[in-house]
Amino acid sequence: MRSAAVLLLTAALAACAQTRPYERPPAPVPQVWPEPASGTRQADAIGWREFFTDPRLRSLVAAALEHNRDLRIALARVEEARAAAGLARAERVPAIEGQASGSRSRVPGDRSFGFATRARNVSRYDVGLGITAYELDFWGRVARLDEAARAQLMAAEHARRAFHIGLVAAVADTWLGTLELAEREALAAHSLAAREATRTLVARRREAGVSSELDVLAAEAAASAARVQAAELARQRTAAENALQLLTGMETVATPGRPLAAQDLLADFAPGLPSEVLLRRPDVMAAEERLVAAHASVAAARAAFFPRVVLTASLGTASAALSGLFGAGSHAWAFQPVLRAPLFDGGRTQANIDLAEARKDTAVAEYERAIQQAFREVADALASRTHLARELAAQQANAASQRERLAKVEARQRAGIANYLEVLDAQREAFAADQTLVALRRQHLSAGIALYKALGGGVSK
User: Fold this and answer.
1) Which are the contacts of 399, defined by CB distance < 8 A and separation ≥ 6?
2) Are 374 and 27 in contact (CB under 8 A)?
3) Region label for 23, one of left (φ > 0), alpha (ψ between -120 and 50) or beta (otherwise)
4) Are 42 and 279 in contact (CB under 8 A)?
5) CA distance 247 to 269
6) Residue 417, burial from CB neighbour count under 10 angstroms (0-12, 13-18, 19+)
7) Could you tell me which residues are beta bridge partners of residue 125?
8) Which of 17, 66, 260, 292 has an alpha carbon 20 to 30 Å from 249's alpha carbon atom?
């Protein structure tokens, strides 16, 4: 009867030590995307080699995944978390160690009860196997610490995958930036050549008395402005190539070959429902694993209020002389369970619980923020892809009109009908339209990459 009561009391205490089971907080986002989209495939099931069709871009992404130092740091952090999880798991099983010891001491004589004995030297030698300070995990403290360590390992792995996705997208977007700047630089060079030719023509017309000094000054100013733009674009392209070198870890980056208009990205993927898609994103999964770890840490902190049973045991041989260690009758064993119950610690245990609870609240807020941030990224990318497609189509028509206008004005100038100011205005408008068209092409491609990244694509090959 007494044993049954003890078992019931133990079960009750163990139940009190546990916190409520982990429950995933509801996603604080709408259940539908603000911008409708169609598609048949999930982005996170599409490998980056399939999504990117440019062979040069594929080689750059592969180089970045092999050589990027930040990715190596993320991999090292995963291994660090794996080792920490191994340490926590090892605490759940007893550690058996070989033990060998020897001691020699002097014992003084005994003068009690009026008898006197002589002092003597005492020797002892022990060899055996032992278990030292193994905690019997009645309340689940060690198990919860193990659970927290495993959750931190999963969080590190998901964080590595999230960085992998970000690196793939960063390489692709930086690559598109170099393409854009190279094409805009070529447009600037073409515009500069055209304005230089126009300046020469205007100078000759002034010598013939047809053009004025103001026309010559305007032509020189237009050529100088084109020269400044060309130099600025060259500087930006060099900076973009340097950024690409840093991302890929490569010493040199080859000059882009395929133009922006020929770049093609796989677009047949669906965003799905927010409640399904967002929870598959590695950064959201990492935030949830950190929340799981915080939840387990609260349970471990609560278990510290209850007694701990620590076991120390040994089995081997003992003798007063080395020669007798393995003789008959030298077997020895020791068994020492210790019950440690917290009585007064100045509020340390309660403070640990309060700290664990505060960290859990922080983890909940970080998890909800990660979902909200993910929702915004997907919504922004969907809207950008839709509206940039319309803007790009309109700008293509505008650029074609401006180029046609410039051709007619230049023809009128050669016929002596149009003055230089009309030509200069047409050149400026056509150049600006072409520059904007190139920028919009890049932005439209970047929006597709951003959507692919936001939906969790880019991990698999």
Assistant:
1) 430, 433, 434, 436, 437
2) no
3) beta
4) no
5) 27
6) exposed
7) 102, 319
8) 260
How far apart (Å, rounded) are the C-alpha atoms in residues 425 and 237?
27
Query: Got the DSSP string for 17-53?
Result: H--PPP-PPPP-S-SS-SS----SSBGGGS-HHHHB-
Q: Name the percent of the chain lying above pLDDT 90.
A: 23
Scan for tokens 């701990």, then name that residue: 308
Q: What angle do CA 454, 457, 460 make, to 5 degrees?
A: 155
Whether pLDDT at 116 is above 90: no
Judge whether 425 and 406 are in contact, CB under 8 Å: no
3-class SS at 143?
helix
What are phi and psi for residue 310, nearest 5 degrees? -110, 130
> Which three-class secondary structure state does DSSP give residue 115?
coil
Q: How far is C-alpha 434 from the chain's CA centre?
A: 37
CA distance 422 to 373: 50
- Give 153-181 pLDDT, tens digit per residue: 999 999 999 999 999 999 999 999 999 99
Kindly state the tokens that stand for 454. Answer: 């936001």
Q: Where are the alpha helices (DSSP H) in 208-258?
A: 213-248
Query: Whole-angstrom Cα distance, residue 389 to residue 444?
Result: 7
Report how far residue 105's alpha carbon sits from residue 57's, in angstroms, rounded to the nearest whole number: 77
Beta strands 331-340; 308-319: pairing state: antiparallel
Q: What is the CA radius of gyration of the chain?
A: 38
Question: Residue type for 137, please?
Answer: D
Q: Which long-range contacts (CB under 8 A, 24 or more apart) does 434-437 make?
A: 434/187, 434/399, 434/402, 434/403, 435/184, 435/187, 436/395, 436/398, 436/399, 437/392, 437/395, 437/396, 437/398, 437/399
Q: Write the pLDDT tens digit of every residue in 367-410.
A: 999 999 999 998 898 888 889 989 999 999 999 998 998 888 88
All domains in the chain, ordered by first residue: 40-94+141-304+373-454 (1.20.1600.10)
Judge whether 231 and 189 are in contact, CB under 8 Å.
Answer: no
Strand, helix or coil for residue 291: helix
Q: Position 409: which residue type?
A: V
Tokens of 285: 């999964």
- Residue 42's CB: how many other CB atoms inside 10 A? 17
Give which of 60, 137, 92, 158 is closest to 367, Cα–Cα. Answer: 158
pTM of the entire structure?
A: 0.81
Q: Classify the phi-psi angles of 335: left when phi > 0, otherwise alpha if psi is within -120 to 50, otherwise beta.
A: beta
